[in-house]
């Protein structure tokens, strides 16, 4: 990586309200990506479930597709190549040979090639009260591998939504060389209002990394509500961009020297010590 490349890049961070019409969702993402590219974005970040917010195991499996035949992946690969930009595809529902589904991130290079894959590790199996309950493990097969991908400007660590509550994953990614971390999400309105900002800021502060997290927003099928507030958080913990609750795209300059400054002040990634278990 050259010193010039270390300077940074311009990111476009999407916020969408996906429903269960895949083509309509792809078209929305394409429109927002083009809008960001018109503002000079070099890498685009899409949210979890960008191409499909379906409800219920049977419906999700019916609309998932194997990687080789996934219409959203094909469309996004074509778009990355056409616009000559890097593209973080949020997550797509990828049908696995065993009948389960992977909630899978793809990072595409500017030629449309697949630079990295990451399957969401932590499953959102929760009971939030008032009848709001989720069991991701009934449909999705959890991933088993942490992933860091080399970008033209830096290294980026991959995570998704509920992963944000597991700080050891993000510390591992940062200690593997990540300067940027990302956790695209479809955070529930209830948990988002309580925890979204503080979790994103904490992961940035703990690692001295940029956090770039695109988001779903608004009301979806089965009256599911997501929180929105796609965020960009700097390594010292400042919120640089907050998308609120509207569909749109935030374009932000990512200054990678801020990583060096934050870690120079508090080099905690080098201060781990072994300790006995209680």
Please tell me what the overall shape is: globular
Q: State the major sheet.
A: 9 strands, mixed
List unreliable stretches of 5+ residues.
1-5
Compute the number of structural domains. 1
Determine and state the CATH class: Alpha Beta
Instruction: Spell out the CATH superfamily.
Output: Carbon-nitrogen hydrolase
On the 0 to 100 scale, the average pLDDT is 95
What is the CATH topology? Answer: Nitrilase/N-carbamoyl-D-aminoacid amidohydrolase
Query: Which structural class matches the secondary elements?
Result: alpha/beta
The count of helical stretches stands at 7
The helix content, as a percent range, equals 25-40%
Percent of residues in beta strands? Answer: 25-35%
InterPro entries: C-N_Hydrolase, C-N_Hydrolase_sf, Nit1/2_C-N_Hydrolase, UPF0012_CS
GO molecular function, one term: hydrolase activity, acting on carbon-nitrogen (but not peptide) bonds, in linear amides
Keywords: Hydrolase
Family: Belongs to the carbon-nitrogen hydrolase superfamily. NIT1/NIT2 family.
Can you walk me through this structure?
- There is one protein chain.
- The protein has 278 residues and is of the alpha/beta class.
- It has a single domain (3-265), classed as 4-Layer Sandwich (Nitrilase/N-carbamoyl-D-aminoacid amidohydrolase), CATH 3.60.110.
- 28% of the residues lie in helices and 28% in strands.
- The protein has seven helices and 17 strands.
- The chain has helices at residues 3-6, 22-38, 57-63, 71-83, 167-175, 189-207, 257-265, and strands at 8-16, 43-45, 86-88, 92-95, 101-108, 114-119, 125-129, 132-135, 148-150, 155-158, 180-182, 210-213, 215-219, 225-227, 231-233, 239-242, 248-255.
- The strands form three sheets. Strands 1, 2, 3, 4, 5, 6, 13, 14 and 17 form a nine-stranded mixed beta sheet that branches.
- Helix 2 (22-38) runs parallel beside helix 4.
- The protein is globular, with a radius of gyration of 18 Å.
């Amino acid at each position: 990586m050259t010193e010039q490349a270390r300077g940074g890049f311009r990111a476009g961070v999407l916020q969408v309200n996906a429903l269960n019409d895949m083509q309509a969702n792809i078209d929305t993402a394409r429109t927002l990506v083009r809008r960001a590219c018109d503002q000079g974005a070099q890498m685009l970040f899409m949210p979890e479930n960008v191409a499909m917010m379906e409800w219920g195991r049977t419906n999700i499996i019916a609309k998932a597709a194997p990687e080789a035949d996934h219409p959203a992946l094909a469309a996004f690969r074509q778009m990355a190549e056409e616009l000559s930009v890097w593209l973080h595809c949020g997550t797509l529902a990828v049908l696995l040979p065993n009948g389960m589904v992977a909630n899978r991130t793809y990072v595409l290079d500017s030629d449309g090639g697949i630079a990295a894959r990451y399957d969401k590790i932590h499953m959102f199996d929760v009971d939030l009260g008032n009848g709001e309950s989720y069991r991701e493990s009934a449909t999705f097969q959890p991933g088993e591998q942490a992933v860091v991908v080399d970008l033209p400007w830096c290294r980026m660590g991959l995570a998704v939504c509920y992963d944000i509550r597991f700080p050891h994953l993000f510390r591992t990614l940062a200690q593997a060389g990540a300067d940027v971390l990302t956790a695209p999400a479809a955070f529930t309105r209830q948990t988002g209002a309580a925890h979204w900002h503080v979790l994103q800021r904490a992961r940035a502060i703990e690692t001295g990394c940029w956090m770039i997290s695109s988001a779903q927003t608004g009301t979806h099928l089965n009256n599911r509500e997501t929180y929105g507030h796609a965020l960009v958080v700097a390594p010292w913990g400042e919120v640089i961009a907050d998308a609120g609750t509207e569909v749109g795209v935030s374009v932000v300059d990512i200054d990678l020297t801020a990583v060096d400054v934050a870690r120079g002040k508090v080099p905690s990634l080098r201060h781990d010590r072994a300790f006995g278990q209680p």
